[in-house]
Amino acid sequence: MSPGRVTIVDYGAGNLRSVQNALARLAVPHEVTSDPEEVRRADTVVFPGVGEASSAMAVLARTGLGEAIRGAWQAGRRLIGICLGCQVILDRSEEGGTPCLGLVPGVVRRFTRTPGLKVPHMGWNTVRFADHPALRGVPPGTSFYFVHSYYPVPADARATAGTTEHGVEFASCITSGSLIAFQFHLEKSGPAGLALLGACLAWDA
Amino acid sequence: MLQKRLVVCLDVREGRTTKGVKFRDNVDVGDPVAMARFCYEQGADELVFYDITASAERRPIMIDVVRRVGEAIFIPFSVGGGIASVEDMRTVLLAGAEKVSVNSPAVRSPRLIAEGAGLFGSQCVVLGMDALADRAMPSGYRVVIDGGRTPTDLDALAWAHEAERLGAGEIVLNSIDADGTRQGYELRLTRMVSQAVGIPVVASGGAGTPDHLVDVLREGAADAALVASMVHFGTYRISDIKRRLHEAGIPVRIS
What we know:
Shape of chain B: globular
CATH class of chain B: Alpha Beta
Number of domains of chain B: 1
CATH architecture of chain A: 3-Layer(aba) Sandwich
Low-confidence stretches of chain A: none
Order of helices and strands of chain B: EEEHEHEHEHHEEEHEHEHEHH
Number of helices of chain A: 5
Radius of gyration of chain B: 17 Å
Low-confidence stretches of chain B: 20-28
Strand order of the largest sheet of chain B: 1-4-5-6-7-10-11-12
Structural class of chain A: alpha/beta
CATH superfamily of chain A: Class I glutamine amidotransferase (GATase) domain
Distance between the termini of chain B: 16 Å
Mean pLDDT of chain A: 95
Oligomer: heterodimer
Helix content of chain B: 25-40%
CATH class of chain A: Alpha Beta
Number of domains of chain A: 1
Radius of gyration of chain A: 15 Å
Largest sheet of chain B: 8 strands, parallel, barrel
Strand content of chain A: 25-35%
């Protein structure tokens, strides 16, 4: 299946160049927008982001991009979340006590600092994936690049499509309908990350 | 389980990669984009570019390098050298780097760390620290700046704690004593700092053989090990170093 019209949401949360570079490498035409109307017209919405949850949510609310993302997802358009885009889809985040988009029931928690456990969780780690059409091509034991201090905790275990260990076992991949979101950076995880991004774009959501 | 990272450092001067030995006598070893692609394909986990010239007039050359590197490789990379303001940080991050590394300017103006972390997130702000053994200091190590030329009054361990408190997301800890010797990392320094802070510590300075990395990632308790000349001159292949780490029981990404 073709990814159709691919739109990267620009809501001021970090730079989007690495996601653009990854899509360019996959030869996938795409646009970057901060216009909610453009998001509504997209067949595939890529929702990346790094940074702080409360300022990100403030922008999403003020610009109407949050509602546009929700609308696109409710209409069954493919929604690919990355990093912060895997957190603000939940109900709320401990980071700044922030109410989030609530597309998936659950919360975002901070890693508890304990001796020997470094925060941010920064570096390459493995993911234990559940069975999902977009995830079947990932070889077992593949590592992906993470950098985050907060992690998603979906309320419903069925939303968890991948788990990773860092002091706790947390949901590093979340799916719900046409949504698939990754706590790790597909665009910075080498050939394996590019392959998985390609699989998500080919997924018949 | 989080894996230990192999970080490859490329020094850049006038848009070309070099490697300094004891910060002097730089040898040109090539084009930064070609070098980055080579390291990426060999399985490096992360790259660091140090802009040695780092003057305001030369900055656009480095930004162009950053932009082209970002198009060529799909692993994280950071840029250090001459980052002295949040505007410098913004320019480098928008060009495609994941992180910026601040060293001497952060000593002179520690709020640079806090401002950068506030604007771009702690994960983007790396403290680069050069430490020199000095018995007069409480931890036994003194912070030196300006590429090792200027001693400061800062204790290395105290500065690491302060940088973490200010919001640094990572520390690249370079031993001036070990740098360029290829005799192994400064294990005592690395272990002391890495066990004292809650953020990742990248060991730097002194790598000469793959077993030096085994030592610093195990005994030195480092989260990552930085290498430069041992791979630049083809003495070791990155893939061979990763294999050695794996065989030694160190968790690493094998691609």
